[in-house]
């Protein structure tokens, strides 16, 4: 019998809005998710964490650093180059143009990322064990290096998304080709740095697309059947229709409906059928974090390599759920997911 490949399913944007949070928690309860990541600078972050606790912590909750929407966590006078005249952080296109023009100060990036990291700990009572940046901003300029520097002081280095896909999928999976090719090119550079510094992650990333393609009922099936590699992360953005996102993350457009469409696709039995047909098994993040601890000090995990001795032990009913360590216990010292 062929060994099943580990698949990590991560839902981005937890806490961005109440209906997005509700959709992610419902999906987590069905056992489809390995983890989700919290936007701590969102005005809805605190209520999202409360909802996660009330639901029994059904999924691993990590950190989603954001530099392109809402207000910063740090005092505005300490991160002035990151905000507009109204005190809100620049949207993605303006942020990137300012970054490339040298108008974004590295010390301001460091202050804001550290402030968001500290707020995550204040809100959840734990350090993050999975991290990926909103709109992939960690690929650009010095953002990725600063983010890794903030994270490297943790007792156990967290799982960080490796934003790259095999060339084969660029040609065989339709949608957003230019965006995917560009992000994958930059992602390969960042992945090498992540591996050198000992941050665990899956070999490849699936799921980057444009909203139009989510309407295809075979969207996830096509990705899973096409992507190669011994380990894969599937990036998803599920949620109910969330009008609090309008004017912050999107307009009244396809990006708002995309979350609803993804939630519907992921809830269908056909999604799990597609995982099994492609020889994937949805695994918790401990699959990578535990193996990374075993390998620490022995050898560096090679690019694209899955950790040794796969760990598929998962709590029935949820891919990411497991008992939580006490707030006084370091995640690096606990065998359980938070």
Observed structural traits:
338 residues, alpha/beta, TIM Barrel, 6-stranded parallel beta sheet, two-stranded parallel sheet, 37% helix, 10% strand, globular
Number of strands: 8
Approximately what portion of the residues adopt beta-strand conformation? 5-15%
Q: Specify the number of helices.
A: 11
Q: What is the CATH superfamily classification?
A: Glycoside hydrolase/deacetylase
Number of domains: 1
Q: Estimate percent helicity.
A: 25-40%
Low-confidence stretches: 295-338
CATH topology label: TIM Barrel
Q: What is the makeup of the main sheet?
A: 6 strands, parallel
Q: Which H/E pattern describes the elements? A: EHEHEHHEHEHHEHEHHEH
Which term fits the overall shape? globular
Radius of gyration: 19 Å
CATH architecture: Alpha-Beta Barrel
Mean pLDDT, to the nearest integer, reads: 87
Q: Can you walk through the features of this model?
A:
This protein has 338 residues and is α/β, with parallel strands linked by helices. The chain has one domain (5-333): Alpha-Beta Barrel (TIM Barrel), CATH 3.20.20.370. Helices cover 37% and strands 10% of the residues. The chain contains 11 helices and 8 strands. The strands form 2 sheets. Strands 1, 2, 3, 6, 7 and 8 form a 6-stranded parallel β-sheet that branches. The chain has a two-stranded parallel ribbon with strand order 4-5. Helix 5 (143-151) links the parallel strand 4 (130-131) and strand 5 (159-160). Helix 1 (18-29) packs parallel to helix 9 (254-267) and helix 8 runs parallel beside helix 10 (269-277). The longest helix has 20 residues, at 177-196. It is globular. Mean pLDDT is 87; it is low at 295-338.
């Amino acid at each position: 019998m062929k060994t099943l490949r580990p698949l990590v399913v991560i839902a981005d944007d937890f806490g961005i809005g109440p209906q997005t949070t509700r959709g992610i928690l419902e999906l987590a309860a069905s056992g489809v998710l390995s983890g989700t990541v919290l936007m701590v600078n969102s005005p809805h972050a605190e209520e999202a964490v409360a909802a996660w606790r009330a639901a029994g912590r059904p999924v691993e909750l990590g950190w989603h650093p954001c530099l392109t929407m809402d207000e910063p966590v740090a005092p505005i006078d300490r991160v002035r180059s990151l905000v507009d005249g109204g005190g809100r952080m620049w949207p993605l296109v303006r942020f990137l143009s300012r970054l490339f023009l040298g108008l974004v100060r590295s010390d301001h990036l460091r202050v804001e990322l550290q402030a968001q990291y500290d707020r995550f700990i204040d809100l959840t009572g734990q350090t993050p064990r999975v991290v990926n940046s909103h709109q992939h901003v960690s690929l650009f300029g010095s953002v990725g290096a600063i983010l890794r520097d903030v994270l490297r002081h943790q007792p156990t280095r967290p799982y960080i998304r490796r934003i790259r896909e095999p060339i084969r999928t660029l040609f065989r999976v339709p949608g957003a080709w230019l965006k995917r090719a560009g992000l994958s090119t930059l992602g390969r550079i960042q992945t090498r740095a992540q591996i050198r510094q000992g941050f665990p992650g899956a070999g490849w990333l699936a799921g980057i697309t444009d909203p139009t393609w989510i309407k295809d009922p075979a969207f996830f099936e096509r990705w899973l059947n096409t992507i190669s590699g011994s380990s894969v992360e599937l990036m998803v953005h599920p949620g109910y229709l969330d009008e609090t996102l309008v004017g912050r993350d999107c307009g009244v457009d396809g990006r708002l409906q995309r979350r609803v469409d993804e939630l519907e696709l992921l809830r269908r039995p056909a999604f799990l059928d597609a995982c099994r047909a492609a020889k994937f098994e949805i695994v918790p993040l401990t699959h990578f974090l535990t193996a990374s601890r075993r390998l620490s000090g022995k050898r560096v995990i090679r690019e694209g390599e899955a950790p040794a001795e796969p760990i598929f032990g998962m709590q029935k009913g949820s891919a990411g759920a497991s008992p939580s360590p006490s707030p006084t216990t370091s995640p690096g010292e606990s065998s359980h997911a938070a």
